[in-house]
Specification:
Layout: E1 2-9, H1 15-21, H2 28-38, E2 45-50, E3 54-61, H3 64-78, E4 89-92, H4 93-104, H5 116-130, H6 136-155, H7 165-176, E5 184-188, H8 192-202, E6 208-212, H9 216-226, E7 229-231, H10 236-239, E8 245-248, H11 259-268, E9 274-278, E10 295-299, H12 300-304, H13 315-340, H14 342-368, H15 373-396, H16 401-413
Parallel strand pairs: 5-6, 5-8, 6-7, 8-9, 9-10
Antiparallel strand pairs: 1-3, 1-4, 2-3
Helix pairs in contact: 4-6, 4-13, 5-6, 6-13, 7-8, 14-15
Length: 429
Amino acid sequence: MQILTLGLNHQTAPLALREKVSFPADTLRDALLDLRGRLTRLLPESAILSTCNRTEIYCATPQAGEARVAVTEWLSAHRHTGRIDDHLYSHPDGQAVRHAFRVASGLDSMVLGEPQILGQMKDAVRAAQESGALGTHLHQLFQRSFAVAKEVRSSTEIGAHSVSMAAAAVRLARRIFDDISKSSVLFIGAGEMIELCATHFAAQHPRRVVIANRTAERADRLAQQFGAETMRLADLPTRLEEFDIVVSCTASTLPIVGLGMVERASKARRRRPIFMVDLAVPRDIEAEVSRLSDVYLYTVDDLGRHVDAGRESRRAAVAQAEAIIETRVDAFMQWMSSRAVVPAIRTLHQRGEALKAAELERARRLLAGGQSPDQVLEALAHALTSKFLHGPTRLLHGEGDDRDRMLHLVDHLLPDRSSAGTDGSDPRH
């Protein structure tokens, strides 16, 4: 079995393509079922990680090369994207393991060291588990990824200077509004990213904070946390003009805020600027909104370009993290190697047990027929030894690589009596 990771991220694909191949959380289970249904032979195990910055398919497969082609075709067809080969990366075996460890540890994120990806990866594993797509190999890969992420965070300073998307949003908002405490802020959505943004903006003590979400219960919970108001999403077209700052991040597959809605709000505001942040993939705010003269719209990619400042100060921490990851990659590949011989060991034991059972039955018949125990034991020992040595002896009488390999294995197959106990064990232990 081989591990394969196929995907695209913020480094290989533009936002417009990433939003096309993204999988909303409520579609992951059906997507996995479809993937496995179409590629049962090639993908006994699979998981899909889909965030605003990446869509990746993790597989355990007996044929990595064939699986890579088949999964690429499935992804293009399932998301109706056309050819996307130029934007995809493919990581086999050790590269796939290293990639998973780096992703979990925040080393492959747009914001270096950000912690949100770990929770997103756990959600992806949970979805794979619930759909029956997670097997032994991927379960072990992800559990070790989580352990590596924990070790990296506890052993290095990788996250100490992290500049988050939320912090970058506040910093950019200050360029438009010198004093955020005089501004009205609208958050569209009530998920983890909105909560993080609300935390950062709340620290600036804005004049007013409003939460709009499809689910009233989640909006109420977040509003209570930050002393905010709530509003219905249906009221957005008539109330958007009230807000100086709008931050949106929902799981909607279609834009929530359209160009016409923002145009009307901008006219009503009489050229007072609106600062808008769209952290959703697919996008919540139509891209054309950025063309309006008094609207400052930033996407997740725009913010990513503003969070690079802390990379230099984290260089030593990155080196430490990479060293930890390399050690853990080696350990996982050793585990994979040991898993590869399990079927052979199981077969060997089964054949040994069958041989033992046959010779014991023969010995019992001889005893029942009146032969002496000594003769029966001698015959039993002779039969077992002959059958055990038949294969190695045949190889030693042959020619070529098989004979040469067997010559090196002879000392390991049967211990020397001078260095072993009567039961075959080393007397020193």
